[in-house]
Structure formats: C-alpha cells, structure tokens
Amino acid sequence: MWHNISIRSQLVILFALLLTFVEAGTLALAYWFDIKERRSLAIEQTRTLGRTLNHDLLKALLNQQASVYSDISFRLSGFDSVAALALLDGKDKVVYQYQQQQNMQSILDITHIETIPQFTGGFLLLRQPLKSDNYVFGSVIFKIDLAAYNTQLKEHLFVLLLIFPLELFVGLAIAWRISRAYTQPFTVLADAMKASDVQNNEYQYVSTRAKNEIADLYEGYNLLIRQIEKTTDGLRQAICHREQSDVANQAKSAFLANMSHELRTPLNAIIGYSEIIRENSLETHQSELVRDSENINVAGRHLLSLINSVLDLSKIEAGKMDVHLEPVSVKSVLYELVSTINPLVDKKHNRLTVEVKNGVDIITTDLTKLRQILINLVSNANKFTSNGEIKIEVWCAEYRDAGCCYFKIRDTGIGMSPETLKKLFTPFTQAEKYTTRDFGGTGLGLTISKRFCQLLGGDITVESELGKGSAFTVRLPAAQSDISNKDVEKRKAG
Ligand SMILES: Nc1ncnc2c1ncn2[C@@H]1O[C@H](COP(=O)(O)OP(=O)(O)OP(=O)(O)O)[C@@H](O)[C@H]1O
Ligand SMILES: [Mg+2]
Questions:
Q1: Which of the residues 61, 383, 443, 446 has an alpha carbon 20 to 30 A from that of 104?
Q2: Domain that holds residue 153
C-alpha cells in the first residue's frame, strides 16, 4: 500500500506526521507552562492580598468584635476571587470565617492545611501567618476561586488550537513545495527514459545545474546510455558484417561444391586410366610402368578423398547436405568397419577389439554418414597409435527420455594436450605442425564427423591425455521416427 503512493505524497505524509507530533508536543508544553504561570500568579496575588489585609485581620483577631468582622466582610466582598477566608488564632482555633456564597462548603474542614499552597477542585488554598513586629498572632487561610485564571487559560488554549491547523496548513504547503524540488529530478529522469527510442538506439540525455548527488546520478545515467549506444552500434555493425560474411561464405561453399564436382570427373578418369595402364603393363611385364601407374593411382585416390572431404564440408556449410534415414544394423556396420580397417591396423602393429553391449540392435540413422564417422575416428586412432591398443565400445542408453546409442573409440596412441583439444573440430586444423609431415591428412575428418553427428541429432565428445591416448565418444539418437524434417532442416542450417 505504502509503496503504491508516489514519493512526493509519501514525503508530504511524513512531513505532516512530523509536524503534528511537534505541534502537539509544543501545545502540551505551552499548556503546562501556562498552568504553572497562572498558579504562581494566583499565589503571588493572594499573598499580596494577605499583606494588604494584614493590619485589618490582626485587628479583628485581637479585638474579636462583630463590628470589626463586618468591616472585614465588607472589604472582602470587593474581591471576587476570594471564595472563603478563615481567621485562626495562635492555637489554630477559628475565630472568624468568611464565605462569599452561603451554600459554599465550610472552610473549617480545611484548617489543617499548612503554608504550602494547595490546588484542589478549582480553588487555591493558602495559609498565611498574621505577624506584627516579627511576632505571629495567628494565621489566615484563603480559599481563592481560580475560575478567573482558568478563563484566561482557556482563551490561551483556544488561540493555540486555532493557530495549530493554520501552522499545519502552512507546513504542508511548504512540504509540498519542498517535495516537488526533491522528486522533480527523478521525474525528469523517468521522462527521459520513457522518451528514449530503444528500437532506433536513440536515447534522451539529461542535464542539471546541481552539483550534488543528483548531478552524479545524471552523469551515471548519461554514461550508461552512451555506453548502450556505443555497444548497440557495435553489435549492429557486427551483425551486418556477419550477414555479409554469411553471404560470402555461402557463395564460397557453393563455388567449392561446384569446383569439387568439376574436379572429381577428370580425377575419376585419371584413376580409371591408371588402373587400365597397370593391368596392361602387368600383361606386357613392364614393371616400371606398373609402379608408375600404381603411384598415379594412390596419388589420385588421395586427391579424390581430399576433394570428397572438401565437397562434404562445403555442402554442410551451404546447408545442402542431405540426410537419408533408414534402419541400420549396428553390428553389420561394425563388421564392415573392422574388415575395412584391419589391414591398416596390422600395418601399424596395433590390436583392435570390439565390445558390443547388450541391447544394441537396429538404429534409425544415415548409414553412409555413420560409416564415414566411424571410419574417420578409427582411422585417426590407428594413425596416431603404433604398437598399441584400439578399442571400440558400443552401447545404447536412455538419454533425456530418448534412446541413444554410443560409440566409444579408445586408443593408446600419442594423445593430445589441453591446448590441442581446444582447437579440435576446427576445419583444416591439425593438432601439431608435424602432423601433416608425419601422418598426412588434411585436418577435415573430425570437423566433418562432428557436423554429420549434429546433423543426425547427436554429437562427438573427446577425452585425451598427451602421451597416454585418446577416447572419442559418438552419441546418436537410436530412433529418429519422432524427428521431423523441420528438425533436420534446422540442424542443416547449423
Ligand atoms: N586419436 C587421435 N590421437 C591423437 N590425435 C588425434 C586423434 N584424432 C585426431 N587427432 C588430432 O586431431 C587432428 C585433426 O584430426 P582430423 O581427423 O580432423 O584430421 P586429420 O586426421 O589430420 O586429417 P583427415 O582426417 O582430414 O585426413 C589430427 O591432425 C590430430 O592432430
Ligand atoms: Mg582424420
């Protein structure tokens, strides 16, 4: 509730409460002082009256004659405030008493009062000794009606109560004015924020002549929006550049795809002719020509695989790589893989083992791409391992409610450093400079394999330690039936 009220109203309410509190306090204090002052005035005036009547009262006390008493009564009747009076002799015996109104309570019952003034029931009771030449003959007790004084007191109180709302009103008007001065800088800031056009990166700056916290706040705000403007401009430029480079990238990929196609046709012819020449040379026993034609064939096939890789990558980047999903027997793929790779494994004196866990059977995926992924990884494992172990483990598991198949290819080869792992899967990147020289290859295998995996809804992860070996894990969804063409299109777009 309180937080729904504007700061300005909150300030005014708080100010009003404070003002009321202070006013009420002042009023109570003023009232208290007024009462005190009026009481001491009544005492003072009574004492003066006592001193004035001292001679007559002494006379009455000593003579105790009716004529003297009637004189005194007559004189006292001129003082409205004297409600009653009692004359007491030296033994505190009442010798005379005066009462302004007959129905008033007798003064006798209060003759016991001492010289300390007492205020009771709207009266002042004051006892004063009657002296002559420092000898005390008796005493007089005055009963003074305070009505006259109280009337003045009420008048004062009335004036105070009249002034109070006036003061409150003036105070509130000042509070309203002051709160405006304090809340206005925030209103200006809020207006500037509202007027800012975020869409077009146009912001309203604020300025002030103040040199206090408001100036700091405004400066901070201006600095912030200057930074936002700068950052947004930078981002827009980056997006623009990215869009331009995306267009250029697509053009490059399309060009590469066309070029690769154009290169493959004559290259296939070269490979074909080199095989014909080899066979003819074998028949005519021209051993030199057989060797040359074999060299042409090996070089041609290497070039063809390189062109195929470049073509695959450019197709992926151009979003033109098609996916053909079909039921695939994991065991048959593994059998094929082992027969293809075994001669190479033997050449490097490695030992290849395959472990297929229970539950692995048919999965729905792209057969050609799965083959290519596994060949890439197993050939890598073999390429970077000599006299070691290569192990392929396959298992299927539930992964986030969807069944997934895992292929883990482990080797005990040269392994990789953490820095190398960071740049893995980057096209045309080989871990170490000596790799091409010592092991050959283009640095495209892993990139293509990872992109294929992602295209099929999975991924490749790697763990490796330099000098100890590496382990690549391929994760692929086992069933693709629930994957729509839209998903594949999205994955193609990267
Ligand atoms: N099993 C592994 N052991 C150690 N290093 C590896 C292994 N697999 C990959 N690498 C490192 O990662 C780099 C990239 O591998 P990738 O398969 O992409 O390229 P390549 O094998 O060099 O060439 P390509 O596969 O294109 O013929 C390799 O050059 C190598 O440095
Ligand atoms: Mg490779």
A1: 61
A2: 2-168
